[in-house]
Design a protein that fits this description.
Blueprint (H helix, E strand, L loop, with lengths): L20 H20 L2 H8 L1 E3 H7 L4 H13 L3 E4 L2 E4 L3 H6 L1 H10 L1 H5 L1 H4 L14 H24 L8 E5 L5 H9 L4 E6 L2 H13 L6 E5 L16 E5 L8 H14 L5 E6 L15 H11 L6 H5 L2 H4 L3 E6 L7 E5 L1
Parallel strand pairs: 4-5, 4-7, 5-6, 7-8
Antiparallel strand pairs: 1-3, 2-3, 8-10, 9-10
Helix pairs in contact: 1-4, 1-6, 3-4, 6-9, 9-11
Length: 342
């Protein structure tokens, strides 16, 4: 008797060895968490250097549970990031691309985990009052320092070469863990800096970083809301203002204009503002979304944060008292752009 043919379930193709669309999506979700964890524990960096590691020895060196560590690498193997043969782990075909974008996975799985976990509640209109969501500010800062290097750094330093004055004082708004202001001070050894952020855990990391870099005497970190800044002595001599990856928090439009005008009062000596941020790109089809864009745009929709387009930004500068010198489009993943203003 000939056996009746088996029919594939929804989303499953014949010959898929039991792995259909649902399994692919599910395993990818688990792997996203594993990628973020593997970066934080140093596994991705070690694989990037050596291309192979012994998971059991790695776990022993890092005081990790060996079974759980093998499970983490199994999650990575399920989506082609690594190959696994017993405890031996080898970088596979997807590794280099995932390693390049590891900070995006960290932003999602570590920094924004609670926001996405609470999606059913956050979607309800009556719940969207006050501070109705939570994110991990320290984890966001950890990811954003790498995101900054990947997406913005080259364009930023090109813009810095176009400064037409000798820099002595710089302020970084939304400084996070302090990476940008410390990098500027390293390149301008006579300059002094100020970092401003609302997140105390990020500022704790910034102060620790400045101490490790031997720059504690050259930089001040201030816990304050960038959107509610007041004049203070530490800001009076600032010539260059930098603000990256938080400009969308200035919006809607009337709030953005007010914030940019306030910066002129708070920083009376400012000669240049470098504003780098992601922008909304509604023209990209749902089926062609690059890495990070979906999570970034959905995350900000859940938080009720308006994401301006490049045209939205360019429409506010004159009204706010700033002259647009140059628009630098990057468009790596989330419509990144750097505006040079004076």
């Amino acid at each position: 008797m000939t056996a009746a043919p088996r029919h594939a379930g929804p989303g499953r193709e014949e010959g898929s060895a039991g792995r259909g669309a649902a399994a692919t999506i599910y395993n990818s979700a688990v792997a996203a968490w594993a990628i973020a964890a593997a970066w934080e524990i140093g596994a991705l960096d070690e694989l990037s250097r050596s291309r192979v590691l012994d998971a059991e020895l790695f776990a022993a060196r890092r005081s990790l549970d060996p079974a759980a560590t093998i499970g983490l690498f199994r999650a990575l193997a399920s989506v082609g990031v690594v190959r696994r043969q017993g405890p031996m782990i080898t970088a596979a075909g997807a590794f280099d691309e995932v390693y390049q974008y590891k900070s995006f996975f960290h932003w999602l799985s570590r920094g924004s985990a609670e926001l996405f976990r609470q999606m059913p509640s956050v979607l309800v209109s009556e719940n969207r009052v006050g501070q109705f969501y939570q994110r991990d500010s320290a984890a966001i800062a950890y990811a954003c320092r790498e995101i900054d290097q990947l997406c913005y750094a080259a364009t930023f330093w090109d813009a810095m070469q176009r400064l037409d004055f000798d820099l002595s004082h710089v302020a970084d708004l939304g400084c996070g863990s302090g990476g940008r202001v410390l990098d500027v001070l390293a390149r301008y050894p006579r300059a002094r800096g100020v970092g401003i952020d609302i997140a105390r855990p990020a500022l704790d990391a910034a102060r620790a970083g400045s101490s490790s870099a031997g720059m504690s005497d050259r930089v001040t970190f201030i816990e304050a809301d960038v959107l509610d800044l007041e004049e203070r002595p530490e800001l009076a001599d600032v010539e260059l203002i930098t603000c990256f990856m938080m400009g969308h928090d200035f919006w809607p439009r009337e709030n953005c204009v007010a914030a940019l005008r306030q910066f002129r009062k708070v920083f009376p000596s400012a000669r240049r503002l470098m504003l780098g941020d992601a922008t909304r790109t509604p023209e990209v089809p749902d089926s062609d979304l690059p890495v990070f864009r979906l999570g970034f745009e959905l995350g900000h929709d859940l938080m009720g944060v308006f994401l301006p387009t490049v045209a939205d930004w360019e429409s506010v500068f004159d009204e706010a008292g700033w002259k647009l010198v140059r628009t630098n489009r990057i468009d790596m993943t989330v419509g990144e752009v750097v505006f040079e203003l004076e």
